[in-house]
Amino acid sequence: MEQAVCCYRHPDRETGIRCTRCERPICPECMVSASVGFQCPECLGEARRTTPAPRTVVGGTVAADPHLVTKILIGLNLAVFVLVQALGDRLAGDLSLYAYCDPVVRQYCIGVSEGPDQWYRLISSVFAHQEYWHIGFNMLTLWWIGAPLEATLGRARYLALYLISGLGGSALVLLLAPYPGALGASGAIFGLFGATAVFMRRSRMDMRPILILLGLNLFFSFTWSNVSWQGHLGGLAAGTVIAIGMAYAPRERRDLVQWGTCAAVLAATLVASWIAVAQITA
Question: Is position 186 annotated as part of the catalytic site?
Answer without folding.
Answer: yes
